Amino acid sequence: MAKKRQAARARKKPGSAGKARPSAELKAVIDDLVIGNRILYVQDVVDGYGHISARHPHDPERFLMSRARAPGLVVASDIMEFGLDGELTRPDARPVYSERFIHSEVYRARPDVHAVVHTHSPTVIPFSVTQVPLRPIRAAFFYPEVPVFDTRASAGWTNLLISNSALGKALAQTLGQNSVALMRGHGNVVVAPSVRVAVYRAIYTEANAKLLLQAKMLGGPITYLAPEEAALMETVQSRHRPGHGSDRTWEMWKQEALARTGKVR
Amino acid sequence: MAKKRQAARARKKPGSAGKARPSAELKAVIDDLVIGNRILYVQDVVDGYGHISARHPHDPERFLMSRARAPGLVVASDIMEFGLDGELTRPDARPVYSERFIHSEVYRARPDVHAVVHTHSPTVIPFSVTQVPLRPIRAAFFYPEVPVFDTRASAGWTNLLISNSALGKALAQTLGQNSVALMRGHGNVVVAPSVRVAVYRAIYTEANAKLLLQAKMLGGPITYLAPEEAALMETVQSRHRPGHGSDRTWEMWKQEALARTGKVR
Amino acid sequence: MAKKRQAARARKKPGSAGKARPSAELKAVIDDLVIGNRILYVQDVVDGYGHISARHPHDPERFLMSRARAPGLVVASDIMEFGLDGELTRPDARPVYSERFIHSEVYRARPDVHAVVHTHSPTVIPFSVTQVPLRPIRAAFFYPEVPVFDTRASAGWTNLLISNSALGKALAQTLGQNSVALMRGHGNVVVAPSVRVAVYRAIYTEANAKLLLQAKMLGGPITYLAPEEAALMETVQSRHRPGHGSDRTWEMWKQEALARTGKVR
Amino acid sequence: MAKKRQAARARKKPGSAGKARPSAELKAVIDDLVIGNRILYVQDVVDGYGHISARHPHDPERFLMSRARAPGLVVASDIMEFGLDGELTRPDARPVYSERFIHSEVYRARPDVHAVVHTHSPTVIPFSVTQVPLRPIRAAFFYPEVPVFDTRASAGWTNLLISNSALGKALAQTLGQNSVALMRGHGNVVVAPSVRVAVYRAIYTEANAKLLLQAKMLGGPITYLAPEEAALMETVQSRHRPGHGSDRTWEMWKQEALARTGKVR
Question: What ipTM did this prediction achieve?
Answer without folding.
Answer: 0.91
